[in-house]
């Protein structure tokens, strides 16, 4: 009987939660181009900071940031949600995320070169299915992926 109980407990155990993922259009229900009201209605982010003068963009932080203060949705007056950097563990659909090596990134997205990653500390990749977007993949000093974001190619919030 104990074996049967153990087997049923193992079979009925919930599957581990999948790693959060950005895709060509956003992060789950939070999509590029949304209004502030639409973005807030997803329940994923807290309130946006107020605009300061002519500032082009404001930021809202993820409610569940998994201990990472560098998670955000950036809202542009011109584009709506223009950039989304998900919480720790966020990966692209191809599996690139925090902890992936530069070699993993180059193998997965062959248009990138180690020299460029070393010089700029990031890669930009056009995701399949949305030529107006880019994955912005930040590389840390350890030559591993630190953060993954999806943004409009013509975002006007930074860089």
TrEMBL record:
**Keywords on record:** Signal
Would you indicate the residue range of the signal peptide?
1-21
Descriptive protein name: Secreted protein
The source organism is Pseudonocardia eucalypti
Q: From which lineage does this chain's organism come?
A: Bacteria, Bacillati, Actinomycetota, Actinomycetes, Pseudonocardiales
